């Protein structure tokens, strides 16, 4: 079965003339009870899908902001199991597809089949597992077979052409085009070759291409959005939630829309 839900949510945005905006949140930063509130806020503010990060003790790809948010959530006792149960408890209210971002270990200890079943029961339509390369993804892929849960692949700036093609061929949901070399977090500028890179990715891929890493201002959302089908914003969203700065989140999301709302 082809994976439809996440891809359709992005395509629907694009058909309206908007870029897809996918915010990343750290589940349980500020306590597990913030999860529902934050998801419903982002949904209402116009997110196309929401990337829900699971706190983890060894988050190798995470920059400072996400790491600290993860530590706060771990202090609150948040685990993958608790997040899945919490998501299931309010899934009727969630209309945007959720994508879980977690490292491989928590999924393995959860159990691949149990994870697939609980995703289906919690409004989760995608998984991002940054430490699981395409070549190793067979077991998880088969656990997700017959579900509408996409295994989303990351492509780095340094991926060679054959690898880009292999990933594009296997891609489900969307391709996560990492726009900087290194870890997550706010950046001032992007590399010059980015436009060509995203152009090549879009040409190779039959699913949408979203740009993520280092996108933190409305200007970034507009300029990177123009080169892709949408953007993923993590650190800036996590910081804004931590500081209770909801207007900043709205402004970022509005920048992905054709019709920027009047202030
Ligand atoms: O924080 P940034 O630079 O806006 O990047 C998004 C990112 O945080 C989110 O998608 C993410 C958080 N942790 C990750 C690990 C790997 C890949 C992606 C992620």
TrEMBL record:
<dbReference type="GO" id="GO:0005829">
    <property type="term" value="C:cytosol"/>
</dbReference>
<dbReference type="InterPro" id="IPR018204">
    <property type="entry name" value="Trp_synthase_alpha_AS"/>
</dbReference>
<dbReference type="InterPro" id="IPR002028">
    <property type="entry name" value="Trp_synthase_suA"/>
</dbReference>
<comment type="similarity">
    <text>Belongs to the TrpA family.</text>
</comment>
<dbReference type="GO" id="GO:0004834">
    <property type="term" value="F:tryptophan synthase activity"/>
</dbReference>
<feature type="active site" description="Proton acceptor">
    <location>
        <position position="62"/>
    </location>
</feature>
<comment type="subunit">
    <text>Tetramer of two alpha and two beta chains.</text>
</comment>
<keyword id="KW-0822">Tryptophan biosynthesis</keyword>
<keyword id="KW-0028">Amino-acid biosynthesis</keyword>
<dbReference type="Pfam" id="PF00290">
    <property type="entry name" value="Trp_syntA"/>
</dbReference>
<dbReference type="InterPro" id="IPR013785">
    <property type="entry name" value="Aldolase_TIM"/>
</dbReference>
<protein>
    <recommendedName>
        <fullName>Tryptophan synthase alpha chain</fullName>
        <ecNumber>4.2.1.20</ecNumber>
    </recommendedName>
</protein>
<keyword id="KW-0456">Lyase</keyword>
<keyword id="KW-0057">Aromatic amino acid biosynthesis</keyword>
<dbReference type="InterPro" id="IPR011060">
    <property type="entry name" value="RibuloseP-bd_barrel"/>
</dbReference>
<feature type="active site" description="Proton acceptor">
    <location>
        <position position="51"/>
    </location>
</feature>
<comment type="function">
    <text>The alpha subunit is responsible for the aldol cleavage of indoleglycerol phosphate to indole and glyceraldehyde 3-phosphate.</text>
</comment>
<comment type="pathway">
    <text>Amino-acid biosynthesis; L-tryptophan biosynthesis; L-tryptophan from chorismate: step 5/5.</text>
</comment>
């Amino acid at each position: 079965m082809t994976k439809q839900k996440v891809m359709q949510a992005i395509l629907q945005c694009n058909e309206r003339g908007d870029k897809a905006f996918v915010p990343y949140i750290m589940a349980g930063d500020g306590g597990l009870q913030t999860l529902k509130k934050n998801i419903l806020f982002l949904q209402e503010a116009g997110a196309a899908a929401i990337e829900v990060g699971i706190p983890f003790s060894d988050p190798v790809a995470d920059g400072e902001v996400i790491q600290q948010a993860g530590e706060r959530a771990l202090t609150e006792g948040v685990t993958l199991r608790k997040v899945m149960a919490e998501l299931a408890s309010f899934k009727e209210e969630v209309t945007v597809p959720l994508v879980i971002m977690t490292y491989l270990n928590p999924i393995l200890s959860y159990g691949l089949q149990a994870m697939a079943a609980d995703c289906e029961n919690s409004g989760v339509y995608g998984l991002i597992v940054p430490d699981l390369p395409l070549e190793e993804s067979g077991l998880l892929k088969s656990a997700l077979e017959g579900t509408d849960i996409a295994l989303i692949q990351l492509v780095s700036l340094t991926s060679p052409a054959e690898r880009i093609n292999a990933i594009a061929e296997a891609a489900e949901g969307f391709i996560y085009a990492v726009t900087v070399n290194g870890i997550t977090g706010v950046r001032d500028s992007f590399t010059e070759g980015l436009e060509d890179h995203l152009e090549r990715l879009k040409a190779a891929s039959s699913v949408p291409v979203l740009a993520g890493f280092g996108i933190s201002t409305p200007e970034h959302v507009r300029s990177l959005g123009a080169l892709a089908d949408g953007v993923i914003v993590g650190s800036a969203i996590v910081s804004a939630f931590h500081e209770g700065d909801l207007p900043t989140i709205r402004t970022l999301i509005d920048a992905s829309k054709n019709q920027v709302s009047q202030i």
